[in-house]
Design a protein that fits this description.
Layout (H helix, E strand, L loop, with lengths): L4 H11 L3 H8 L3 H8 L6 H13 L2 E6 L4 E6 L1 H7 L1
Antiparallel strand pairs: 1-2
Helix pairs in contact: 2-3, 2-4
């Protein structure tokens, strides 16, 4: 399943990070991330880099390829570390 723009935006919100921080972590220019989140296109390589980075930061992407439903979950271990 290919990462979509709303998943990136939701993942950043869950992690409480900005586009600049995600850009630094992923190696993707923050302008590219912002443009993608606002409806612009992004290459498969860019989407993969964002997905890998967000997963390393504790996000899990969920979805159903049959219904095209997608979502984002913050892994429980990340929540327990903050308590």
């Amino acid at each position: 399943m290919l990462l979509d723009r709303l998943q990136v935006k939701a993942a950043r919100a869950l992690l409480e990070i900005g586009v600049r921080e995600l850009g630094e972590e992923s190696g993707v220019n923050y302008n590219t991330i912002s443009r993608f989140e606002n409806g612009g296109s992004a290459s498969i390589r860019t989407r993969e880099a964002l997905r890998e980075t967000l997963e390393l930061l504790g996000v899990q992407f969920v979805g159903d390829e049959h219904t095209e439903d997608v979502g984002v979950v913050l892994q429980r271990a990340e929540l327990e570390d903050d308590e």
